[in-house]
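Bench log. Compound arrived from synthesis this morning; before running ITC I wanted a structural hypothesis for how NAP sits in the protein. Inputs:
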Amino acid sequence: MTKLVQIGKTDLRVNPIGFGANAVGGHNLYPNLDEEAGRDMVRAALNHGVNFLDTAFIYGPKRSEELIGEVLKERGNRSEAVIATKAAHVLTDDGEKFDNSPAFLKNAVDEALGRLQTDYIDLFYIHFPDEQTPKDEAVGALKELKDAGKIRHIGVSNFSHDQLKEANKDGYVDVFQGEYNLLARDAEKELFPYLAGKNISFVPYFPLASGLLTGKYDKNATFDDLRNGLPYFQKGAFEANLEKVDQIRPIAESKGVELAHLVLAWYLTRDAIDVIIPGAKRSEQVLNNVKTLDVQLTQEEISKIDQVFQQ
Ligand code: NAP
């Protein structure tokens, strides 16, 4: 049995290896996704105790939440899953914008509950900050939803340090989700010390830098999805990143573990982090990432990995 961990000050108890479900029905992010493969990833996760599922309105849009809702319904055991979802996107004719207004958030939660076919969301994040809403007002709306039992915990994502401080004026923020991986470590500077002081847990997204940190790509790799726009994959940066990955390959080899698991295990040694949400395209990847829990890192290995990726 996997030892469950508590996410920060919440009462959520989860497998430290969660599942980021942006490729479950995330047709707007990845071309040619098979929806049944998406449902299968959710089933595989829950069958193997990967109980923390991370989704959002914008994955699909809507389809990721809907497919997760279908699987929850088919299994009939809502309490086996800890569901985190997010909203803020408003789709317009010219693209998208963000809304954090109380009215928007209240409606967004009601709609997400419908898509997920549930009467509560374990963790609801404001996905991105808008420019106009005071952040304590936005979080105040989530507190009302929490008091009404529609959401259990409050999160914010992609907020600046100042926005987070404003959002947490009344101490209501439970979880912060932000970009963090060995190639993107800005969060360590200001954010981690603030979060530690407030006992807010940090959930890193892009833990594998969209697959780059698994060590499976070489410099000739090409991509036809969201990776084309990510800084890690741009010419010059991509090659430099691959060189860093090669420098930690011997550590994985000497331990007889996969590079992906070495990297994921390293995040779980960070004080700010309780749970990680690697994404996947196939059930095998979801299950494979659970092997991270078998990786024990020595202090020397932790420091070596740290040094290679110091920016
Ligand atoms: P990621 O976790 O860094 O990378 C996941 C990708 O790596 C998979 O889709 C798969 O892609 C590859 N992979 C996964 N496990 C592997 C394994 N064991 N061996 C080899 N390759 C493996 O990136 P992400 O999925 O974009 O991010 C994780 C989650 O964070 C998302 O699902 C989403 O829930 C969340 N997120 C949140 C935000 C936000 O704004 N809050 C933004 C982005 C993501 P390939 O097989 O195609 O290589």
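What the model suggests: The CA atoms of residues 41 and 284 lie 8 Å apart. DSSP finds ten helices and eleven strands in the chain.
ITC booked for Thursday regardless.
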